Amino acid sequence: MEAVASFGSLLVDPERHAFLSPATAGALASTVVVAPHPDDESLGCGGLLALLAAAGHPAHVIVMTDGSRSHAHSPSFPAARLAALREEETIEAVAALGLPAHAVQFLRHPDCGLPAAGTPAFDEAVAQVRQALVALAPATLLVPWRRDPHCDHAATWRIVRQAVAERPAPLRWLEYPVWAWQQPGSESAPRPEDGRAWRLDITPVVARKARAIARHRSQRGVLIRDDPGGFVLQPEMLAHFARPWELFIEPADG
User: Does residue 93 contact residue 45 with C-beta atoms inside 8 Å?
Assistant: First the structure.
């Protein structure tokens, strides 16, 4: 098996993880993807979103942070300009996936600044997400993998988890990895006891996903060139999201 397909103790093995057809996306019905940053929606769930759009199923994206710290030292793209650019890129990306601009909601929390549990700001963020979910009334909710090794990914999971804690209607909860792919043998990787992992075949829309990821130009090293230490999606990182399938984890704790 190729090394890039190794994910901790979860090996992407057809005999262990179901490989579900593209039509499976339709069973998710109305779906909301919560993305910690602009671009996580395309990286982790771009194929799923494209399949939903192609089938005419309602799909929405909630972006938690403004992504303004990816190039914190760029003179040409100070924080406010970079945040605006990243919103434009996200709207272009979801359009490439087949979604309208109004399918994206930006909550604009500071990049790497989502509030910690037990603080008034955390309660406010929970209320904000809860209000958005009540308005959208999804049947399925996708959030970052709970141990994804990035502060905003973990914080997003905690905020959304609290936001749905008292939800009376049933909700299907799925988690998607982004940064955990980079640490296949670490504690962040899912374990079999965490829940059921399955792969969704996105072959019919894999080109759409690639176009969506390409729309995030600020993260590709092709637009912002005056911050040598700025973030760039490296080829080895992008390789995880160029496969004709996406991995989702349906946790044992629901």
Answer: no
The model's pLDDT over 109-140, given as tens digits with 9 standing for 90+, comes to 999 999 999 999 999 999 999 999 999 999 99
Tokens 């059921």 sit on residue? 196
Q: Cα–Cα distances in Å, from 244 out to 174, 182, 193?
A: 19, 18, 26
Residue 26 is encoded by which pair of tokens? 């339709």
Locate 235 and state its tokens.
């080829």
* Residue spans of beta strands (DSSP E) within the chain: 6-7, 10-11, 19-20, 31-35, 59-65, 104-109, 140-144, 172-176, 195-201, 245-251
What is the rounded distance in angstroms from the CA atom of residue 138 to the CA atom of residue 241?
Answer: 25
pLDDT digits (tens, 9 = 90+) for 88-99: 999 999 999 999
Per-residue 3-state assignment (H helix, E strand, C coil) for 71-108: CCCCCCCCHHHHHHHHHHHHHHHHHHHCCCHHHEEEEE
- The rounded distance, in Å, linking the Cα atoms of 158 and 219 is 26
